[in-house]
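=== Given protein ===
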Amino acid sequence: MLYVSTRGSAPALDFEGVTLAGLASDGGLYVPAEWPGFTPDEIAAMKGLPYAELAVKIMAPFVGDSLSEDKLLGLCREAYGTFAHDAVTPLVQFDEQHWLLELFHGPTLAFKDVALQLLGRLFETFLGRHDDHLTIVGATSGDTGSAAIDAVAGREKVDIFMLHPKGRVSDVQRRQMTTVLAPNVYNIAIDGSFDDAQAMVKRMFGDTAMTGRFHISAVNSINWARLMAQVVYYFAAALQLGAPQRKVAFSVPTGNFGDVFAGYVAAKMGLPIERLIVATNVNDILHRALGDGDYSAGTVTPTAAPSMDIQVSSNFERLLFDCGGRDGAALAEQMRGFEASKAMRLTNAQREGAAALFTSARADADDMAQAMRWAHEHCGETIDPHTAIGLHAARAAGIDPAIPVVTLATAHPAKFPDAVERAIGSRPSLPARVGDLFEREERYVELPGDYDAIAAYVAEHATPNG
């Protein structure tokens, strides 16, 4: 399996190459040169498999010759053995139509663990084949940072530098990053938004002064390997609800578009998905883009769902590429225009391609709180603010009652105790395995939202290549 850049001019790489590279050298994102597919009979034969074995079936076509299936299975068993639930991503029923896919049973209580526990092991495996040192530079709106840090803390040949917007993540989210005191972990709180942090990370990938000295890679969902691992739980949920004989719809709380794009990949592979519902908060660039083709960034509005407080959704580029005829040169020009003006119109082909599978909905603070109350009062379920936005969108989508609708529960409610308590009147507790979080020592630096300051800090502390 070879991978190509959405912007058309970077060299094609194999799975090992794209995992270690993260972002393509031309500024694009890697996607498979072609989508692998399964027949309905092949999908039906996956029913009842343990999660790690199902993961190997789904991921093997993407991994190709980079790993044997036995090695991949070993890595998956290690990764998912860290989860607190044997089902890894269990389904919970709300009512006759609506279901909850719990993705928060990993070490840091967020869906990012499903991919990053595996990605950390992939990094270590591939780096062990080379005399190479990896410098991971990432930006987080809350959950990616802690999941990535947990996945690579203390691992050989890896340093991680994680930027988060100062004061714009929850206390639990911040502490899950800053209390990891491993010597290869560097936490940076910047003055600015997540979009500012993400822009600086992308700039570093194109900065030859940095890339010439350090092997820089990514753990954000711009890294294909991370997104690939998220495809698995769409298959897991759909198989339990009757696929491939029965279609399933999914509602996905979305900021950077990676989680819901994994659903698009599952559909491309043959999983019968009725709809992918893109659920946004008031930072609704994706809702506007899918609704009327207006992909224009505004000012980020801080909300009680901070992981969605994003105006530039990196993974949306992958969808635009695939729906726009896979014309890398045309997309590169389109994205250059967007990066200069922070506004663009989707082409007709991009809009029509997206509309074949995607719908969207926007939730404000009242919608979010009402969804949390409904889940608690009618179903006895406590959900976090991001999941509540997904549930609001799911219940408003008007899907045929015969088709199950699965809302992705992206974080444990105890990561956002203040917002949950305001909505339902009771405060969720942290699971026992992280119950001492507020007693642990923190370590991080505060830096201005200035690229030169960030680059200088990374250059001072990272391990040069060679």
